[in-house]
Design goal:
The protein has 249 residues and is of the alpha/beta class. Helices cover 31% and strands 33% of the residues. Strand 5 and strand 6 form a beta hairpin. The chain is globular and about 50 Å long.
Amino acid sequence: MATVDKAVAQEAGASGSLSRFLIRLLMKRATVTANEALGDRFRLVTLEGPGLRDMAWTPGQKIQIAMGSAFAARTYTPLTWNAVEGRTCILGYAHGVGPGSDWLRAAVPGSSCDIFGPRASLNMARPGGPLAIFGDETSFGLAYALGQRDEPAEAVTAVLEVGDIETSRSVAAQLQLQGCTLISRQPEGVHLSEFESKLPALADTGATFILTGRAGSIQRARRTLKTLLVPSKRIRTKAHWTPGKTGLD
């Protein structure tokens, strides 16, 4: 038993050393300067640091924040990035109990974290025209970031399924998020028919669809888009979470 315990300890130590090496090599140190509750479970977190300066950030790109280890990170879409001041903001949604949710609640001003990125999250190469974002509470950041681009010919529409519609309305209002439709999430996914009813009109505009959020909802929306003969080049998908799994990129 002692031999086994020693081997486990050695393996854990090696893993910890590798994690620290990767953090030093690949990640940037940042300090939390603000953590504002926009509503139950939503946190607007501001991060600053010299390593965030002079970064080439494109709206829609992601960052990953280490949850104490380079091998345990959570992904967020920055709302904004000030490359001169070295400052970025993320809107996080705390699903419940877990590394990401715990970090969002505990990230007090003055605390530090390690960031990887920014880098591409979705393949944003697409034909011109409107953008239609389908997602949930985890998609607010993406909708906001893409809506800030100075490309009026590519108007952004967001349709989001949410658990607490009043809180989500408040968040959308605080972000001054335009063109956002919220649908109340119902048991057994019965609300998804309303979700899907928004697809045909948007498909007729030639919109490029960005499907994010819960994996099951993405799969259903994608099937509907296929029946509407929307070409694959106008569909982008990125699952943020699925029940029973954690740490999706």
